[in-house]
Amino acid sequence: MTLETLIERPAWSVPQAEKEALILEGLNALTRHHAKTCPAYVRILDRVWGGALDAARIEDVPFLPVSLFKEIDLKSMESASMVLQSSGTTGQRPSRVFVDSETATLQSRALVASIKPLLGDKRIPMLMLDTKQVLSDARHMTARGAGVLGFMKFGAKTQFALDAALSAQTDVIKAFLAQNGGAPFLMFGFTWLVWTGLYQQFADGEIDLSKGILFHSGGWKKLTEYKVSNDAFRSALKRRFGLERIYNFYGMVEQIGSVFLEASDGCLYPSNIADIIVRDDRTWMPVPPGVPGLIQLVSLLPHSYPGHSLLTEDLGEIVYVDRGIDGRLGKAVRILGRVARAELRGCSDVIGTTAGA
Amino acid sequence: MTAPISLYCGNNCRTPIALDELVALAERRRVMRRKAFDEKRLRLIAAVADDLLKDKSMTAEPQVRVFAFWTRKAALLSMQRDFEARLPQGCQAFGRGLAFHLPPTNVDTLFLYSWAVACLTGNASLVRLPSQMPTIVQRVIDNYLWRAEAQDCADLFVSYPVDDAVSAALSAVADVRLVWGGDAKVALFHGWPVRLGGKTLAFPDRRSFAVLSGDALTRLEPAGRTSLAQRMHRDVFVFDQMACASPQALFVVGDPAHHQAGVAAFLKALDAVAHSGDSQVAPAHAIHKFVQSCEMAVVGEADRIDRLSANLTVAYAAPAATYRVRRIGGGFLTVRYIASIGDLVDHIEARDQTVTHFGIGEDELASLIDRAGARGMSRLVPVGLALNFDTVWDGYNLLGELVRLVRLHSEKPEPLKSC
Questions:
Q1: CA-nearest residue of chain B to A48?
Q2: Is A244 on the interface with B (CB under 8 A)?
Q3: Pairwise CB contact (< 8 Å): B239 & A71
Q4: Which of A305, A344, A351, A354 to mutate to test the interface with B (most CBs of B within 10 A)?
Q5: pLDDT at residue A351, as a whole number
Q6: pTM score, two decimals?
Q7: Is the Cβ of A339 closer than 8 Å to some Cβ of chain B?
Q8: Residue among A76, A347, A353 with most chain B CBs within 10 A, to mutate
Q9: For helices B39-54 and B62-70, what crossing angle results, to 10°?
Q10: What is the fold of A107-250?
């Protein structure tokens, strides 16, 4: 099975051409699997994709728009053990992703395969840059909760740095550092929480995180007012805390477990079981490296829901392929933000109050 | 405290004005109402149209060009003749007083018609300018104010942020209030009475569709197909297909076995026109259309969805699905085959406004009105004219609604019989 082959190979060690062949086989198998098990999916295949099944190239694999998970429940099994939800912006329905134990196991194995090479086999003390409350409902997990849960596997003696109101518990952080700050330790948090819950809570040099290893994700969607570039983020954390081992990663709740991890070139690299296709934002035709466009994500993990091929609303570009930076092969990706919201015109004023207008 | 109000004085200049001052000013303007089609007013509006037609930078904007043609002198004179010919015998018409216009925020040129019609029928107007007014539309107002200055201008153009107190106070002095902009806005204004004896013309949310003859589509030669596609493009793509009169559905009289090729060729031609046009659909909206397509497939509204390009997506309605279509806009059409135009009768609703048609006989259209007019629909126009404004709109005869009649009875009283 191609998923096993890919997950067993060292992370980022598979050249692009070989990877694509393996992934394509797995994606075609998933398309057939979901066509059999998900009635909603097969209708989309038949009616929107003209009955497409086996694709000859990965860019020909049918894809769903990622926000469809906000609109309808898409599942390929009877009962899910867990429903993952996107954090969602206010006023928007969150995505709902149905995960069973098989898919959850695959997600977890894939995450381990991506993170282990950077951490080694030994579990190290962990400072979680989030609140314990994010895990309070195990059946309806948010994207943040799932991230926290996924990363807890890599740490030991995990301490939560934030309280329920997402304010820093400075005494907890200081106590954790007094005990563990002298040797390598792990930190994980959403990018904006690292900024508001950690960076903004301390003065330069007030605490020492120079032995820390930080994984962060999720970007700035939540707090657009802190538009901080990745470079500025890194240098601010270095200045304030002496923190240098920082790994940004990109992923989404609809394909949890498939992560794109940052290398020393600042680019993000997909894990072995996932890949990216960048498409022209109008024609949706694949574009070559160096050309920005809409991001499509493919992953071999989703078995319990038809999420193996998704068109996102994120913009990005493939910077180069098989370059070997830090020994990594495959596509190197840069994320460029989100597609601009569309404002249609029309007779109808949207709501009464603006209309008073 | 009420929201700051500003009075538009032309050339991008605005003066702040207090609410009580504005109300007093509106009352003074109200007294300047005139006879309908007063010669000076007609000449003034026609002169503005003349200026627009001479200015290439203005006529480059199709919506402004259409307005200029609509208000050129010959058109106004014909409108006047038509109006006067239909007055009941012995009647003269006068403006009702102060017309308060609440145009939609996004269809930039609509308020020009609302205002021009009120002005021609002899009313004084108080127009709340849309919050997003393109420069080119502003220049139409500039032109009018400049020309009107020499005469006694009766019209006021104001801006104010959302404020119930202001809307209520201005409503209270209005003889006619024209509320454009959909259900929510119409409902909001229902709360504020107009002047005693005044009235509201309300324009709530509407839906529109096209009816096309499958035979006529199939018979089209390439040149005719392109020309029809160009006309359909105007109906669909101006105002992002979100104007009340923009068709969302195409009903094809015929069946897939005979007409599918003709329909597909026409839609392909429409997509080609959209591709060469200057209003391209935004990438985010193209994704939204894709999401809607998938939903329609899942819930069984559509049998097949064809994404011709980012600009145009076509959903073929499932036979069992409802005739109501999603209002997605930005180049999304739902196609449904019907055996005859009579199939529409039971599905017409009060919300239906404009029916654009191609290849359908006048007798069939008349029969549709006969059978379904009581339920809904207010305009049936050939493809290409969906967005052209008319003095009969949403079921109102606007000229008639905006005047007050004075009748001179010419019959002699019968002599009183002596007892």
A1: B305
A2: no
A3: no
A4: A344
A5: 37
A6: 0.91
A7: yes
A8: A347
A9: 150
A10: Rossmann fold (3.40.50)
Amino acid code (one letter) for B244: C
Count CB atoms within 10 A of the CB of residue A225.
5
Question: Do B121 and B194 fall into the same domain?
Answer: yes
B163/A347 Cβ within 8 A = no
pLDDT band at A171 (very low <50, low <70, confident <90, very high): very high
Nearest to A192 by CA among A220, A230, A163: A220
- Residue B118 and residue B12 share a domain: yes
CATH class label, A2-68+267-338: mainly beta
Tokens, residue B178: 């024209």
Please state the rounded mean pLDDT for residues B211-225. Answer: 98
Rounded to whole angstroms, how far apart are CA atoms B271 and B283?
A: 16
**Which chain B positions have a beta carbon within 8 Å of A341's beta carbon?**
284
Q: Are A148 and A130 in contact (CB under 8 A)?
A: yes
**Which pLDDT score is estimated for B3?**
78
State the total domains in chain B. Answer: 2
Cβ-Cβ contacts under 8 Å for A112 (sequence gap 6 or more): A153, A154
Nearest residue on chain A to B182, judged by CA atoms?
A348
Give the residue extent of every domain in chain A: 2-68+267-338, 107-250
A75 vs A79: CA distance, rounded Å: 9
Q: Do A340 and B282 touch (CB under 8 A)?
A: yes
Q: Cβ contacts of residue B323 below 8 Å, gap of 6+?
A: B249, B317, B336, B344, B347
- What ipTM was reported for this prediction? 0.92
Select from B110, B294, B300 the Cβ nearest to the Cβ of A65: B294
Beta bridge partners of A19: none
Query: Count of A–B CB contacts within 8 Å?
Result: 143
Asked whether residue B413 is assigned to any structural domain, the reply reads no
